[in-house]
Amino acid sequence: MSFSIQGKTAIITGAATGIGHAIARHFLDEGANVVFSDQNEKRLKSNCDDLASSENCRLFVGDLREKLAVANLLSTTLDAFDRVDVLINATRSFMLTDPLDAADDSVETLLDQNLNVALRTSQAVARRMILQAEQEDEKPQEAGTIINISSIAAHRTQPQLMGFSISNAALEQMTRSMGVALAPHAIRVNAIAVGSLMSGTLRDTIAEHPEYRDSIIQGTPLHRIGTASEVAELAQFLASGASAFMTGQVMTLDGGRSVLDTVQRPAH
């Protein structure tokens, strides 16, 4: 069983910071060609400054809500590496929702950013993967892999997170649907649903509300907060031949938080 991604070409969106950046760095370290994609040019260039001389790395700046940006992302990848083998949709936007405010457009905004961007990018990349497979002398066992980064919020109910939860639930259904649709083309589609990870945003929240850290740990059976590097390692598994018989699946990485029932039965 091989976890190698050596020589594969991967596009990773949301790669300026957080999970996307950790995955992109990890894939680069594991010998993949990596396109770091993000719409925040300043942050992307700042966090990737040390990679400027790498032959196996390219930076792409663009708002993937625009169809032209998706096309340009794919062109940048092909110009640099001639092909694409892996797409990781790690663009994640977060905002609170007021479920009773008719003027609150957060649900619409998050569906566009967390679902539609992943859908359009996946469709464009999948078409290229299919074309690559058709150009091979023999039909490959695997034409490509697509990995979506979701959240356990998709299955938990917190009204103020309604927009975020809905967009992630939709992303997971997209994963299952595209997993089936692309299976005849030897393209696998899976997702990783993450719990609380120690990111810049979470650090800021904990700094302002120290009790929040204890709340997370108490609600997590493994009694700690996860790291982006752990997501990166799971993404490598899903991009490698070790997961060759997996598609349409959502793997949960949350320290057991999503399986914990916080309402305990009284002791007798």
From TrEMBL:
Q: Which Pfam families match?
A: adh_short_C2
Task: List where this protein forms a coiled coil.
Answer: none
The record's section on InterPro entries has: NAD(P)-bd_dom_sf (IPR036291), SDR_fam (IPR002347)
GO molecular function annotation: oxidoreductase activity
Which first-to-last residue range defines the signal peptide? Answer: none
Q: Which UniProt keywords apply?
A: Oxidoreductase
Q: Specify the superkingdom.
A: Bacteria
Q: Which family does it belong to?
A: Belongs to the short-chain dehydrogenases/reductases (SDR) family.
Q: What is this protein called?
A: Oxidoreductase
